[in-house]
Amino acid sequence: MSTRDEPLLSLRGVRKEFAGRGPGSTVLAVDDVSLDVRPGETLGLVGESGCGKTTLARLILRLVDATAGEIRFGGRDLLKLSQREMLSVRQDLQVVLQDPYASLNPRMRIGEIVAEPLITHHKVPRGRRGRAAARERVAELLDAVGLDASVQDRYPHEFSGGQRQRIGIARALALEPKLVICDEPTSALDVSIQAQITNLLRRLQRERGLTYVYVSHDLSMMRQMADRVAVMNLGRIVELVDTEELFTNPRHPYSHSLLSAAPIADPKAERARRRIVLRGEAPSPADPPSGCVFRTRCPVARDECAGTRPPLVDHDVPGHAVACLYPVRAAADLLHEPTS
Ligand SMILES: Nc1ncnc2c1ncn2[C@@H]1O[C@H](COP(=O)(O)OP(=O)(O)OP(=O)(O)O)[C@@H](O)[C@H]1O
């Protein structure tokens, strides 16, 4: 295997338990997640609210520590690094968050905000020379995200949501990272602005050879942004596959149900399609079901699904991994009830 084929990021058996509300109770936010992210690709993480997407992103960034498992980035096991060693890895590992306003210090000027990582990581000299170098570098970064250098002297509240997200992206790029985790970067923005930001992220990826982990609850966003998608349900990956294959040939019943609920732009197709109705309430990560986590809502679950946790393994096509004992081919196989 050449180094080109080696994953940039590799997770094996990653688990995160949080303390729950009651004494001794736990919330299993991420459960036995294994995946590889290849250099230059965008790996999407998709699933309903609470399925563990953000926790997984935070684990990769080491903002929270995993309960078990291994997270390798650029060949190093992040969970074994000291805080000091982690600081140097952080240069290569950056994040763009959903709400840029919350992540931009309102009392700092834009120039200071974007320059902050350069100063923290000693990328510019101290003193007047350093300040001039930082201003020049910040001007380049702002230009790269479509903002004028003159915005350096202004404050975050003077900008729109889309412009603030551009500022957040400029800051994330300051240290020339290899991997950027984009956690719902457009979901706080108006629809009209979302495409501008996704286009910008795609252009920056092309120009800079970036690798993205792209977190979203929105499947149509995945189709635009991701090369491969990991579908998460209750802390586990249930399907991991090339994006187009997910849309044309989903195999996990949960993926089918997500796809059947996603809006379709074509009104005729929208009227004609039928939604898969899931039974019951979504189970809680404080008390996940035995065996397959989807089985309590799955239209085709059988007795065995309660006893065995299905491993995430390739089905039919190499690289199309599904964690299901009885993967389905057609959505029609799941439509037991007529939809309104
Ligand atoms: N610090 C914490 N303490 C306790 N439980 C937590 C903590 N952070 C997350 N959780 C729980 O872990 C589970 C996964 O949450 P997470 O935020 O990762 O999901 P998500 O898929 O990103 O959802 P959303 O899209 O709503 O952000 C949820 O049940 C959540 O309540």
From TrEMBL:
Residues in ABC transporter domain copies: 9-259
Bilayer-crossing regions: none
Keywords: ATP-binding, Nucleotide-binding, Transport
Biological process according to GO: peptide transport; transmembrane transport
SUPFAM superfamilies documented for this protein: P-loop containing nucleoside triphosphate hydrolases (SSF52540)
A Pfam family this chain is assigned to: ABC_tran
Domain of life: Bacteria
Gene3D superfamilies (UniProt xref): P-loop containing nucleotide triphosphate hydrolases
Family: Belongs to the ABC transporter superfamily.
Protein name stated in the entry: ABC transporter ATP-binding protein
